[in-house]
Amino acid sequence: MVRVPRHVLRRLLSVGEDPDAIVAAAPPVPLRAVFRRFWPYTRGGRRWMVLLLCFSVIGPVLDGAEIWLFKLVVDDVLAPRDLSPFLWIALAYLGLVVGSGVLGFADDVLSTWVSERFLLALRADVFRHVQSLSLGFFERRRLGDVLSRVTGDVDAVETFLLSGVANALYYLIQVGVFLGLLFYLQWDLTLLALVIVPLFWRAARHFSRLIKDASRERRRRSGSISAIAEESLGNVALVQAYNRQGWEQRRFERESVGKFRAAMTSARIRAVYGPIVEVVEVSGALAVMAFGTWKLAQGQLTLGGLLVFLALISKLYSPLRDLSRLSNTFYAASASAERIIELLDQRPQVVEATGARRIGRARGDVEFDGVSFRYPGTSRWALSGVSFHAAPGGTLALVGASGAGKSTAAKLQLRFYDPDRGAVRLDGVDLRDLRLSELRESVAVVLQETLVFHGTVRENIAYGRPEATEADIVAAARAADADEFIRLLPEGYDTMVGQRGRMLSGGQRQRLAIARAMIRDAPILLLDEPTTGLDAQSGRRIMEPLRRLMAGRTTIVISHNLLTVRDATCIVVLDHGRVIECGTHEELLAHGGAYARLHRLTAATAPTPVGTPPMGKVLS
Ligand SMILES: Nc1ncnc2c1ncn2[C@@H]1O[C@H](COP(=O)(O)OP(=O)(O)OP(=O)(O)O)[C@@H](O)[C@H]1O
């Protein structure tokens, strides 16, 4: 016999390490913990599961009865050559077939219903949970991997919990029924047939572990593939402009090859496992046949009895084999379950305090009081002892070099993160004591990168306030100076703007964002570089709607556009996370510091303040 060296076998049946893992594998979770975790999602379908269980008992009983009828045909009709009992045996057989058909139909429909309901509940909950996570989670994780968990891995959990359990029970019941019949027929032959069970069990345990490793690697690679696809297709313009298609392709292929290898390892494990199980099974069947033939010769068994016994043995071995295979399926599916559990175990960094306060409509008094903040996992302070105050209706401008901490301050204002030291207050109340939904309702944002959803212009504006009427939408669009261009679009307010608003120009997207903020009618307005990416003319064009939007609201504006900054009630100059200057335009000019330097330079380089070079280049 050819001996395969151990190390070759190990290499064939196990997955290698990946030193440059794009997506890390989820921590292992014991099978029992996986069950406990997902069992609650079966709520609502449990009584139907009991019914399915009854079907599982009835099914094998009907199967057993069919085989029994075969024994009667051999022993009572064929052997004595007597046709008289045939009619009722034939009728019983027909009845059994019809019964099995009806049962099969009910079983198929009901089990699909139970599984799909389970998936519905789980998927909705996973998505709800992911939505509840703080911005920090999404800034750390690869979006594609999260998507692959929410879609692909969720389905695998169903295999684990419902189909898996249902099948396991079904097989167990089959084994029980057939074992009962076999013992009734010939207890000594049955005992001999059962010798193979411990062998089955050992093989299943060993191979399941190998399968689990390979499946874990497969799911991890699926996550990496989704992540790369999402990143490169989402940034297709950048990829093409920099001719990086080849590089992206190689990254994608590297992960795909990883998945392919893991799939091949799984296939090899299953391929080795199949014949091993078969050899065990055939040995058992042969032993039974030999002993059975001896008993037949001794006259201790009829021919019909032996044939039925052998038919039942194959019926018994089939669920036994399926049971041992199922353990492979269980372990494979548990690799996906681990990825879902890891997702569900993520806790939002920002949580609403119990008994959080309601403030109703805020006045718009914003205060940063000695705020220091470090992004999780970093050692540098993004903000350090930052204090400023914006009175209701006032405009506070945050200026500073790139990386000075302006957007971070905006994130803290929206409570995407909590400060490590100090406090951010709204109307004198620490944001941590406020209801999160009320805080967010108090703020309307217009971001640097305007977010436009795939949908109509109308839907995009109404996103700021879903209950807005048609008149509100048009009024907001007019105030945002967007009504005119919207009416020129092919279908006016019903025009689809494409994913991320691709059908619109940068300035049009920006005006749509202003209309959305306008309709929200919040007391606080957060403008993060609202004129970035716009040419001088478009930049100037949105100034007027912006001013209309800012009127009567507390505005925090992060801008390089000195037109907005000049009018601010207070200008805060940030540098490396610290406030280095603070005052009105005139005060800061008179002070002759960083702001005055910037102003001199921008005045010298640009005729109008709109479209000036980034302040970062000057301050840093
Ligand atoms: N999610 C993050 N995780 C870790 N560090 C971050 C994160 N976001 C920003 N930083 C770091 O925090 C610092 C402040 O960044 P921030 O985005 O607030 O700067 P900014 O003043 O808004 O810059 P810009 O004008 O270029 O938008 C930077 O050093 C940046 O590298």
Automatic annotation (TrEMBL):
<keyword id="KW-0813">Transport</keyword>
<dbReference type="GO" id="GO:0005524">
    <property type="term" value="F:ATP binding"/>
</dbReference>
<feature type="transmembrane region" description="Helical">
    <location>
        <begin position="86"/>
        <end position="106"/>
    </location>
</feature>
<dbReference type="InterPro" id="IPR003593">
    <property type="entry name" value="AAA+_ATPase"/>
</dbReference>
<feature type="transmembrane region" description="Helical">
    <location>
        <begin position="48"/>
        <end position="74"/>
    </location>
</feature>
<dbReference type="GO" id="GO:0005886">
    <property type="term" value="C:plasma membrane"/>
</dbReference>
<dbReference type="InterPro" id="IPR036640">
    <property type="entry name" value="ABC1_TM_sf"/>
</dbReference>
<dbReference type="InterPro" id="IPR003439">
    <property type="entry name" value="ABC_transporter-like_ATP-bd"/>
</dbReference>
<dbReference type="Pfam" id="PF00664">
    <property type="entry name" value="ABC_membrane"/>
</dbReference>
<keyword id="KW-1133">Transmembrane helix</keyword>
<dbReference type="InterPro" id="IPR039421">
    <property type="entry name" value="Type_1_exporter"/>
</dbReference>
<keyword id="KW-1003">Cell membrane</keyword>
<dbReference type="InterPro" id="IPR027417">
    <property type="entry name" value="P-loop_NTPase"/>
</dbReference>
<dbReference type="Pfam" id="PF00005">
    <property type="entry name" value="ABC_tran"/>
</dbReference>
<feature type="domain" description="ABC transporter">
    <location>
        <begin position="366"/>
        <end position="601"/>
    </location>
</feature>
<comment type="similarity">
    <text>Belongs to the ABC transporter superfamily. Siderophore-Fe(3+) uptake transporter (SIUT) (TC 3.A.1.21) family.</text>
</comment>
<feature type="transmembrane region" description="Helical">
    <location>
        <begin position="271"/>
        <end position="291"/>
    </location>
</feature>
<feature type="transmembrane region" description="Helical">
    <location>
        <begin position="191"/>
        <end position="211"/>
    </location>
</feature>
<dbReference type="GO" id="GO:0016887">
    <property type="term" value="F:ATP hydrolysis activity"/>
</dbReference>
<keyword id="KW-0547">Nucleotide-binding</keyword>
<dbReference type="GO" id="GO:0015421">
    <property type="term" value="F:ABC-type oligopeptide transporter activity"/>
</dbReference>
<keyword id="KW-0997">Cell inner membrane</keyword>
<keyword id="KW-0812">Transmembrane</keyword>
<feature type="transmembrane region" description="Helical">
    <location>
        <begin position="159"/>
        <end position="185"/>
    </location>
</feature>
<dbReference type="InterPro" id="IPR017871">
    <property type="entry name" value="ABC_transporter-like_CS"/>
</dbReference>
<feature type="domain" description="ABC transmembrane type-1">
    <location>
        <begin position="50"/>
        <end position="332"/>
    </location>
</feature>
<keyword id="KW-0067">ATP-binding</keyword>
<protein>
    <submittedName>
        <fullName>ABC transporter ATP-binding protein</fullName>
    </submittedName>
</protein>
<keyword id="KW-0472">Membrane</keyword>
<dbReference type="InterPro" id="IPR011527">
    <property type="entry name" value="ABC1_TM_dom"/>
</dbReference>
<feature type="transmembrane region" description="Helical">
    <location>
        <begin position="297"/>
        <end position="317"/>
    </location>
</feature>
